[in-house]
Amino acid sequence: MKKEFSKEIIDEITTRCPEASVKIHAPRRVYIRVPREKVYDLAKFLYEQKEFRLSIATGIDTREGVEIIYHFTFDQAGTYYNLKITIPKDDLQTKSLATFLPAANWIEREIHELLGVDFIGHPNLKPLLTAESWPAELHPLRRDYADEHKNLKMKEKSEEAL
Amino acid sequence: MANAKLWGLKKSPWVFHVAAASCNNCDIEILDILTPRWDVERFGIVLVGSPRHADALLVTGVLNRKSLPRVLQVYEQTPKPCLVIGVGTCTCHTHIFEPSYNVVGPYDKYIPVDVYIPGCPPKPEAIIMGVVKALKRL
Amino acid sequence: MNIVNILISYIVFPGFLFAAVIGLFITWIDRKVTARVQMRVGPPWYQPYADFLKLLLKETIIPEGASKTFFLLGPMIGLVAMSIFSVMLFSMNFNPESSFVGDVIVMIYLLALPPIGIIIGGSASKNPLASVGASREMTQFFAYELPFYIVLATIILKAGGTIRFGEIIRVQQAQGPFLYSLSGVIGAIVILLSTQAKLSFVPFDIPEAEQEVMAGPYIEYSGVALAMYKLTRAMMYFLMPLFLISLLWGGLTNWWAILKFLLIIVLIVLIKNTNPRLRIDQALKFFWVGIGTLSIIGLILAFYNL
Predict the structure, then answer these.
(1) Which one of A76, B60, C226, C306 is CB 3.0 to 4.6 Å from B26, fit for a cystine?
(2) Is A33 domain-assigned?
(3) What parts of the sequence cross the membrane (chain C) (predicted)?
(4) Which residues of C sit within 8 Å Cβ distance of B?
(5) C234 pLDDT exceeds 90?
């Protein structure tokens, strides 16, 4: 199998979703930007029919909204097909992939507790990595967390002084 | 009689390894000192499997919000008198991890530490020297 | 015999103190040989005594919710049993008239008490890992005791049907040790492997596997109670090879007995250093199927005087 991205997969993706914009970063790395509503069907297609593997999902807080990238990999060719979605800040929710993908279960819990994105249909959306005493509505990886962090530290210092 | 018991404590410290969310570099170096090259059993140091058998706690890693109650529990379960030895620079002070959201102060605020061994990770000779210094202080 | 003599023989020589001091020395030999085999320098000669003294210094913590009597009773059972066993072993070797009918059965019973102490202690600590360790110890106890009893029947058969310990030794001194016959060799192999399992040494240290159940039944013990467990094991390490020599190799009255004892210790240490740990079902199968048939073959051979 040639160690390069395959044109058939990209053609199939663009036929299913014409609004996708494909950027080929390197011979084995492809970034596909899709709208938020289409990622569920595309991921289902890739996972069930083409037997891709979800490696990880990453999220970041930008000016346009919260960007989530789902990294799908095709192990025989060693290529990564990354699906990028942007979620606007005033409507932070998206359909959860954990209903058919067991690999997305824990990573979506982590994105939920650290960035505040609500995944609809997730079977078990409890906090995963933060401590039990951490307030659940505080999302540390947001850009405006720095001010809340100062408030939290001052509150803890005053509690200790008592 | 107290002299004999103190001699016993100096000559055979049993060690339990508490890895509180470390990057595992210091843990690998602690594993190194049990190998034949820096043989540490000649000082009577044995790695035990339960904190109730331990005389010295080798602590690694920065103190986390999540690992704080667990480290406190392990410290309370160790029968006193016990030494606490902090291995690695992460135990001395929080340094570059200070602005993080999950870090709670240095170890000194919660449990009394006897010896700090700086280094990232400290060489096995440094760990041995630190343990011997802690034993000499008894 | 007045009461002072009896007390001195049980506590000082050849009872508790004698077996304890020499037993701790034998554990040092074990650790030093292991270290040399692994190409390192081992601990100095006073290491086991320093360990014991240090354990007396620490506080004994009894977990909340654990049964206090049985938690502290567990270590004592093994210690007392081993002291009595030591007195019986030495006095009957050097004075065969002092043995009574059926005392081999009493000695086997005394040897079975330390594992029972471990099981009681492990079950009395309120800890799920300790109960797992105690149940593994129970299973292993069933495994290695069965071939041991069959070999004992073999030895009784070869000694002409007597169950007095002094008689067995006297028959060996008259006829030549039982080891110099095929059923004797089989018996020696079986008793050696049973010793390895009773002392919880690799490949049979399943109850206290450090990577699986952290320290097994001993997990909640600290201070004086733990010191007693370690002392019981040290005494067993010293006394069980002597038991093997008395049953099969001619008794302890000869000066050659020291060399035979060192040979058995070296064999135990070698098996300990060259083998990985077994699983509990593998150990059970090994003892009942493999060693069990071997011991039955030994019994049949002894029946035909081989």
Answers:
(1) B60
(2) yes
(3) 6-29, 70-92, 104-125, 146-166, 178-195, 231-249, 283-304
(4) 31, 35, 38-44, 46-47, 49-61, 208, 210, 214-215, 218-223, 226
(5) yes
